[in-house]
């Protein structure tokens, strides 16, 4: 009887004593530790009940659980460490927006789960490893990534090659062999930090590639969930915050005040470089007027010109956003295009490299710009893509609306049939904008002082009215093409009638 009483007393008071040793850390206390300078050596901050916050000299903080376990092969229990997760990576900064990757509460929950496994005679570290290796081949991250890339084959070849490069060169060696459901947030973070570290060895403080790889990992998780039906959480969302912030580089382009010299240098390119192609001059001149992506100009076909409406219609399979794109052509642009007709019309392409017997390569514009001296000396660096930057900035200075500029740059996704025709309805304004832009470039060439004043209301109304009829014709033409296409696909007359009313 006395022994039982002593056991009860021990259980009551012993339990209380154990509780007093537990929950030693607080959220604010851990955050204060995170704000401290990195120590010279590893420091362990105990929360009690085997859970510790490890403060590393590299500035990171992570959770560990200490435990003893005796396997069938062991003569006696061994001291082991279970890695729970990262509180703060070495690259994260503590500010008002900081959120721990694994909070104190989450660490305690994971510790309790590990303790429950130990109570059942299971080594939590071995269990974690088994879980990662308990899978079918189709569940591997690399298999799902391949399926995702196959789906992306509908986009441009260049985009697919870029994504495949991110996987082959950076991501798959870290995550490829794991089933997607077993990958943890910490696995993703470690992958991003490893990619960033590779670029640090090359002397780069931040890495755009590391951030893009993290975005690709998240996209593959979304694909697995939304398309393949995996019942998992996208644990990759937001994990790029563990990396150093990356400031995107401005595309290489001259400044606005240097634009007139660039225009004049383009005009004189053949005179200054006798071996230069006249097509190169025409291509660069048209690029300044239309500011399309270089691949769209290089693959420009005569069949894409609508002479009745004076527009260039680029089919969606040539566009980055996979949407049809309409470019109103100013009189100056039409004149440049017509100069090419006797030379290239029989090839089917507006610009054609007869030396290689195919359209010009990606290096076409960049090589010409480099020959002109746009390499940083004597002129700033400039690329074919930089004309889009110049046009965007210039059109803002001319006080055109952001939405109009973004539409013409083909930056806006058209997510519905209605949006498709919203864009067509802006054609009158876009035609006016493209004509104004062409005249503005002529003034820059001539060295005229440019006024950025808005048009008077009556002047704007006059210009708009002169183009409204043309814009309406284009919208009606596109509407008719859409209706006929849907009819061919077997859409009912009732649905077509309702659609026609909305359009």
List the helices and strands and how they pair.
Elements: H1 2-20, H2 27-35, E1 43-48, E2 51-55, E3 61-69, E4 78-88, H3 104-119, H4 124-133, H5 141-151, H6 157-175, H7 185-200, H8 208-226, H9 259-267, H10 269-272, H11 278-290, H12 294-298, E5 305-306, E6 311-314, E7 325-328, H13 331-344, H14 363-371, H15 386-397, H16 402-408, H17 417-425, H18 427-446, H19 457-488, H20 493-502
Antiparallel strand pairs: 1-2, 2-3, 3-4, 5-6, 6-7
Helix pairs in contact: 5-6, 6-7, 6-8, 7-8, 9-18, 11-13, 18-19
General description of the model:
There is one protein chain. The chain is of the alpha+beta class and 503 residues long. It has three domains: 111 residues, Integrase, DNA-binding domain (Double Stranded RNA Binding Domain, 2-Layer Sandwich); 106 residues, Tyrosine recombinase, N-terminal domain (DNA polymerase, domain 1); 247 residues, Intergrase catalytic core (hpI Integrase, Chain A), CATH 1.10.443. Helix content is 52%, strand content 8%. The strands form two sheets. The protein has a four-stranded antiparallel sheet. Strands 5-6-7 form a three-stranded antiparallel sheet. Helix 6 packs across helix 8 and helix 18 packs across helix 19. The longest helix has 32 residues.
The percent range for strand residues is 5-15%
Oligomeric nature of the chains = single chain
Give the CATH level 1 class of the largest domain.
Mainly Alpha
Mean pLDDT: 83
Computed CA radius of gyration, to the nearest angstrom: 32 Å
The number of domains: 3
Largest sheet: 4 strands, antiparallel
Number of helices: 20
The CATH architecture of the largest domain can be given as Orthogonal Bundle
Q: Could you give me the name of the CATH homologous superfamily of the largest domain?
A: Intergrase catalytic core
Shape: elongated
Counting DSSP E segments of at least 2 residues, the number of strands comes to 7
Low-confidence stretches: 1-20, 413-423
Order of helices and strands: HHEEEEHHHHHHHHHHEEEHHHHHHHH
- Helix percent band: 40-55%
CATH topology of the largest domain: hpI Integrase, Chain A
Q: State the strand order across the main sheet.
A: 1-2-3-4
Given helix and strand content, the structural type is alpha+beta
Report the span from N to C terminus.
91 Å
């Amino acid at each position: 009887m006395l022994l039982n009483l002593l056991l009860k007393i021990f259980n009551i008071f012993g339990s209380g004593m154990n509780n007093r040793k537990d929950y030693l850390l607080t959220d604010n206390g851990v955050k204060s530790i995170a704000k401290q300078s990195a120590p010279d050596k590893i420091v362990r901050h105990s929360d009690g009940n085997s859970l510790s916050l490890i403060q590393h000299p590299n500035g990171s903080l992570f959770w560990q659980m200490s435990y003893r376990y005796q396997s069938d092969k062991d003569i006696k229990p061994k001291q082991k460490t279970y890695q729970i997760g990262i509180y703060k990576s070495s690259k994260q900064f503590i500010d008002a927006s900081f959120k721990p990757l694994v909070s104190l509460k989450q660490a305690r929950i994971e510790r309790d789960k590990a303790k429950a496994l130990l109570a059942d005679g299971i080594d939590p570290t071995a269990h974690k490893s088994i879980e990662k290796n308990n899978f079918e081949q189709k569940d591997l991250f690399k298999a799902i990534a391949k399926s995702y890339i196959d789906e992306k084959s509908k986009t441009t070849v260049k985009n697919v090659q870029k994504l495949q490069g991110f996987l082959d060169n950076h991501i798959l060696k870290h995550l490829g062999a794991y089933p997607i459901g077993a990958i943890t947030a910490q696995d993703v973070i470690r992958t991003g930090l490893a990619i960033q570290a590779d670029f640090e060895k090359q002397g780069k403080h931040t890495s755009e590639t590391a951030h893009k790889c993290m975005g690709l990992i998240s996209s593959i998780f979304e694909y697995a969930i939304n398309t393949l039906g995996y019942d998992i959480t996208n644990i990759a969302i937001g994990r790029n915050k563990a990396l150093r912030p990356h400031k995107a580089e401005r595309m290489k382009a001259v400044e606005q005040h240097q634009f007139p010299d660039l225009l004049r240098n383009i005009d004189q390119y053949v005179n200054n470089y006798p071996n230069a192609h006249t097509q190169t001059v025409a291509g660069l001149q048209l690029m300044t007027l239309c500011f399309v992506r270089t691949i769209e100009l290089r693959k420009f076909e005569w069949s894409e010109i609508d002479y009745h409406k004076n527009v260039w219609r680029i089919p969606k399979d040539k566009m980055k956003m996979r949407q049809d794109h309409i470019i109103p052509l100013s009189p100056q642009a039409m004149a440049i295009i017509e100069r090419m007709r006797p030379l290239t019309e029989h090839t089917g392409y507006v610009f054609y490299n007869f030396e290689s017997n195919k359209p010009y390569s990606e290096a076409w514009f960049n090589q010409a710009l480099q020959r002109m001296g746009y390499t940083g000396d004597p002129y700033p660096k400039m690329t074919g893509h930089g004309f889009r930057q110049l046009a965007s900035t210039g059109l803002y200075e001319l006080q055109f609306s952001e939405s109009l500029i973004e539409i013409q740059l083909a930056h806006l996704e058209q997510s519905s049939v209605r949006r498709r025709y919203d864009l067509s309805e802006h054609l009158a304004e876009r035609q006016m904008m493209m004509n104004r832009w062409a005249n503005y470039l002529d003034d820059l060439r001539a060295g005229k002082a440019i006024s950025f004043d808005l048009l008077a209301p009556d002047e704007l109304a006059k210009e708009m009215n002169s183009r409204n009829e043309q814009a309406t014709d284009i919208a009606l033409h596109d509407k008719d093409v859409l209706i006929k296409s849907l009819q061919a696909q077997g859409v009912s007359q009732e649905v077509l009638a309702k659609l026609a009313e909305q359009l």
